[in-house]
Write a structure and sequence with these properties.
This protein has 165 residues and is of the alpha/beta class. It has a single domain (5-159), classed as Rossmann fold (3-Layer(aba) Sandwich), CATH 3.40.50.620. Helices cover 40% and strands 19% of the residues. It has helices spanning 17-27, 49-59, 75-81, 94-110, 130-138, 149-159, and strands at residues 5-10, 32-38, 66-71, 86-91, 115-120. It has a five-stranded parallel beta sheet, with helices on both faces. It is globular. The termini are far apart. 30% of the residues are buried. The structure holds 4'-phosphopantetheine.
Length: 165
Amino acid sequence: MKSITAVCPGSFDPITFGHIDIIKRASSMFDKVIVVVMKNADKVSTFTVEERLDMIRKSISDIPNIEIDSYNGLLADYTKIHNARVIVKGLRAVSDFEYEFQMALTNKKLNQNTETLFLTTSAEYMYLSSSMVKLIGSMGGDIRDFVPECIHDFIISRLNGKGSK
Ligand code: PNS
C-alpha cells in the first residue's frame, strides 16, 4: 500500500487547540503528517519562527506520525520537496472559504500532485483564532481554554512584553 504524507501548514502564531484538533485528526488519517510553520504574507507575526516551533513541539509531543518543520518559501514547493500528496487545512466558517479556496486552486496549479483537504473545525473551536488568543492575552484575559497549559505562561509573558523579539 502507498504511504501518504500530508502537510499541515500554518503561521501558528501561536498554536491553539483549534490547530491541535486538526493535526490530531490528520495524524489519524495519514502515514506521516508534517506540521510546517510558514510565512503568511498578510500577517505580521508576534512570535519568532523558533518560538512557534518550540510551542508546537511542546503542544503535540503526544501525537503519533508527526514531524515539525519550518519553511520560508512557497507551500507548493515544500510539498514537492517532501513528496507530500495532501495539504490539510481547517475550515472554521464560510468567511474562511473564499481565501482558502483561492489558495487551494493556486497550490494545485503550482503542484498538480498535491490535493488540498479541508477538515471542518470541531464545533467548540469554530470561533477560535491565534489573533483572538493574542488579543485576549494581551488585555489580561484568560486564554487557558484556548492554548495548552505547557505554553500558556510563555505566551502570556511574551504578549506582555517579556522575553525575546
Ligand atoms: O495559519 P495561516 O496564517 O492561515 O496559514 C497560511 C499559510 C502560512 C499556510 C499560507 O500563507 C502559505 O501557504 N504561506 C506560504 C507561502 C505561499 O505558498 N503562499 C501562496 C499560497 S497560494
